[in-house]
Write a structure and sequence with these properties.
about 25% strand, 4-stranded mixed beta sheet, Topoisomerase II, domain 5, disordered C terminus, 5-stranded antiparallel beta sheet, 19 helices, Gyrase A, domain 2
Length: about 850
């Protein structure tokens, strides 16, 4: 009955459940989680829209923050003024957002946790980047929805010309879920998006060539890549982030640790209090003074040490026991069609591309509609100009505007809007110049409309526009990465206790490896025990030896194109006479038939040094050494190989050397290393040598003019020639003859660079082994057939040519190592410093 109350009787448990679900969804969708398209929560979107409507663009004067907050609360967000102001303040803080969206003037807080001044004291306007976040919003690019009381319209999402969610990240706690998305570098993200547009099937490894990891506004260093990869693959991961520090010497002989950058979202003043508390409680020892010398030029926390304190030890304790090291948990949850979704990096990029496709399409449709509307008017004007005398006469003879409008429609065959435009046209438009301008506008509109229709008809045009705009954002706002990413996971319980010392790494032809501390090695040398006393198998021998640091990297490259590395201290220690351990036992998950073909030592992974790979089918690939710094436990793919192809040789180069590739049929091609452009890690490479049918590559050598080249054939013949005898050509040629592969010589087994005094071990198919000095082989011209260097019987064949370390070379290594500082390593070996050839 009318006027009577209607009572619904139900259990309180059911009502509480329904009400709580409604509340939680309201928090999730309307408050706590960002939209995957523009990366903004509703309150941030409303603030930016309100500021835009107030005319607070980046090139206009600032206005009081209270004005902005009042506009937001009154029209779009009827909640607490303090919450709205705090949201705006965060968008203005350079230590909170990687790329600020609000340009603040006044006290907007500090990294010490200081609150911003009251809104009546501060002023604000949109940043230049924020204007691009809202670009083209007036062209019907996004849906407009009712505000809270239905009196106004506000955008459901912003056009987002740049990927705001990825570059600025987001934090939010909803009901039953939370999001914690880190910021990234704009250049890296834009490059990754462009790559995914061009390569829709891009893998995670492909994208991580561009997006190295989070890039925090406060800098710091991320250690390890497993957490980054997990976050990018699954949407969840954990990062270890450390402060950036350096050590300075003081005048009184003491040292001090300087903290230059701290982890993201760490309060600096609370960190200093925390350090002081740990020192007071004697949890951390060796610190005599602590002060903050930060100023407008940057952060500087000074930690003075006792005279007898070891800086690295104190620093490790600071990392372990204070917020100088934190664990940053990544949770990539955002709203996709108003549903909270956990997103991988590839999904985040995909949703952004879809959003921009919608924006560009709607903008083009709007521009086309406006162009067609104007073109329709111009058509009427052009008809009037073509019948100008009749048009003027009709207008003059008409009694009023309405009759003139109807008369023009009949005279020119136009509609009411066109007739009205003719009547509204000013007389100055009838001048010759103005008529020419109208005709030009008419013709230009035809071209414009055809172009807009072509964009709408072809998705590749839309994608090209998206890429062009991303490149514009990259060039306009892109900056250098602030956060350093160290691919090595922190293992302070083990590695920090390992002393940095010089060690000798020895590798035998049968892939046995061992490590000897240089101090022990020298002591044993004085006893007069030479290389001949090494306990290898009867047919085994020392193929490579180099001096390095116990903390340097030893890289192992396999014939299947995979790369593993071990720190020097992880290689088993042995005596000078011991055999060592098989390399395969230290590398996990080797495939059937997979073996190590090269071992290379490096103290780091710089951008200006390269790994050059050569395959049996003649492909060559050059990649910056820095691309191989991230090696997982199972190894990484160093080069992509075709089915049936295999890696035969790898060398480390300086970027300005020459390459010689030799084939079994006795051909060799020599070209500049610069002919092979540097490319990504997981690529196949380019053609280094064109092979005849049935031919295959047997060797690659890195040379310089004046070097000597040894060629050995399977029937036991060989010769040494000057590298300059090999005509230099472009990459991909067939090459010139390095030795005739007739019935006498047989196929080529090995072509390698040799130095004066080098010794080699030749092995035949029947197991016969000889050791020889290369100085015994006569140097001849390139066209010579060679001389016999190994006597073979009963159709036996040479199958392997290996370098052998001489005692003279060993003494040179020892002498060179004596002059090397303890914390660095050299790359000297039997293969001219490039590691071991298989």
């Amino acid at each position: 009955m009318d006027g009577e109350r209607k009572l619904i009787i139900q259990p309180i448990e059911k009502e509480m459940q329904r009400s709580y679900i409604d509340y939680s969804m309201s928090v999730i969708v309307g408050r706590a989680l960002p939209d995957v398209r523009d990366g903004l929560k509703p309150v941030h979107r409303k603030i930016m829209f309100a500021m835009n409507n107030l005319g607070l663009q980046y090139n206009r004067p600032h206005k009081k923050s209270a004005t902005v907050v009042g506009e937001v609360l009154g029209k779009y967000h009827p909640h607490g003024d303090f919450a709205a102001y705090e949201a705006m303040v965060r968008m203005a803080q350079p230590f909170s957002l990687r790329y600020s969206l609000v340009d603040g003037q006044g006290n907007f807080g500090s990294v010490d946790g200081d609150s911003a001044a009251a809104m009546r004291y501060t002023e604000a306007r949109l940043s230049k980047m924020a204007s691009d976040l809202m670009a083209d919003m007036d062209k019907d690019t996004v849906d407009m929805v009712d505000n809270y009381d239905g009196s106004l319209k506000e955008p459901a999402v912003l056009p987002s010309k740049f990927p705001n969610l990825l570059v600025n990240g987001s934090d939010g706690i909803a009901v039953g879920m939370a999001t914690k998305m880190p910021p990234h570098n704009l250049r890296e993200v834009c490059d990754a998006i462009v790559y995914q547009i061009d390569n829709p099937d891009a893998t995670m490894d492909d994208l991580m060539q561009f997006v190295k990891g989070p890039d925090f506004p406060t800098g710091g260093t991320i250690y390890g890549l497993s957490g980054i990869r997990s976050a990018y693959e699954t949407g969840r991961g954990r990062l270890r982030v450390r402060s950036n520090t350096h050590v300075e010497d003081m005048d009184n002989g003491k040292e001090r640790i300087i903290v230059d950058e701290i982890p993201y979202q760490v309060n600096k003043s609370m960190l200093i209090e925390q350090i002081a508390e740990r020192v007071k409680n004697k949890d951390i020892e060796g610190i005599t003074d602590l002060r903050d010398e930060s100023d407008r030029h940057g952060m500087r926390i000074v930690i003075e040490l006792h005279r007898d304190a070891i800086a690295n030890v104190v620093l490790e304790n600071l990392f372990k026991k204070t917020n100088m090291e934190v664990t940053y948990g990544i949770i990539n949850i955002a709203l996709v069609d108003n549903k909270p979704t956990t997103l991988s990096l590839r999904a985040l990029i995909g949703h952004y591309i879809d959003h921009r496709k919608t924006v560009v399409t709607r903008r083009t449709q709007y521009d086309l509609a406006q162009a067609e509307k104007r073109f329709h008017i111009l058509e009427g004007l052009m008809k009037a100009l073509n019948m100008l005398d009749e048009t003027i006469a009709l207008i003059r003879s008409s009694d009023d505007a309405e009759s003139a409008n109807l008369g023009l429609q009949g005279l020119l065959g136009i509609d009411s809007d066109q007739a009205k435009a003719i009547l509204d046209m000013r007389l100055q438009k009838l001048t010759g110049l103005e008529i020419t301008t109208l005709r030009q506008e008419y013709e230009d509109l035809i071209v414009t409309m055809d172009d807009l229709k072509d964009i709408l008809a072809r998705e590749e045009r839309v994608l090209a526009i998206i890429k062009s705009e991303l490149s514009e954002m990259r060039d306009t706002y892109g900056d250098d990465r602030r956060t350093v990413i160290d691919p090595n996971a922190i293992d302070s319980d083990e590695e920090d206790l390992i002393p940095r010392e010089q060690v000798v790494i020895t590798i035998s032809a049968d892939n046995y490896i061992k490590r000897i501390p240089l101090s022990t090695y020298r002591a044993q040398s004085r006893g007069g025990v030479g290389l001949t006393a090494m306990q290898t198998k009867e047919e085994d021998h020392v193929a490579s030896m180099f001096v390095t640091s116990s903390h340097d990297y030893v890289m192992f490259i396999t014939n299947h194109g995979r790369l593993h590395w071990l720190k020097g201290y992880r290689i088993p220690e042995g005596s000078r006479q011991s055999k060592g351990k098989p390399i395969v036992n230290m590398l996990s998950d080797l495939e059937e038939g997979e073996k190590v073909v090269n071992t290379i030592c490096a103290s780091g992974f710089p951008d200006d040094r390269y790994l050059v790979f050569c395959t049996r089918r003649g492909l060559i690939k050059k990649t910056a050494l820095s691309a191989y710094g991230n090696v997982r436990a199972r190894g990484i793919k160093a080069i992509k190989l075709e089915e049936g192809d295999e890696l035969i040789e790898t060398a480390i180069t300086e970027g300005d050397e020459q390459i010689i590739i030799a084939s079994a049929d006795g051909l060799a091609v020599r070209f500049d290393e610069s002919d092979a452009r540097a490319m990504g890690r997981d690529t196949m490479g380019v053609k280094g040598m064109t092979l005849n049918a049935g031919d295959s590559v047997v060797s690659m050598a890195v040379v310089r003019p004046g070097d000597r080249l040894l060629t050995v054939s399977e029937n036991g013949y060989g010769k040494i020639s000057d590298v300059d005898d090999y005509r230099k050509t472009r990459r991909g040629g067939k090459g010139v003859i390095t030795i005739k592969t007739d019935d006498r010589n047989g196929k080529v087994v090995s072509v390698r660079k040799v130095n004066v005094g080098d010794q080699l071990m030749l092995t035949s198919a029947s197991g016969k082994i000889i050791r020889m000095n290369t100085d015994e082989i006569r140097e001849t011209g390139r066209n010579a057939k060679g001389v016999r260097i190994m006597d073979l019987r009963d159709n036996d064949k040479v199958v392997a040519v290996e370098p052998v370390m001489t005692e003279e070379q060993e003494e040179e290594i020892e002498a060179e190592a004596a002059s090397v500082p303890a914390a660095t390593g050299t790359e000297t070996s039997g293969n001219d410093g490039q590691g071991r050839d298989e």
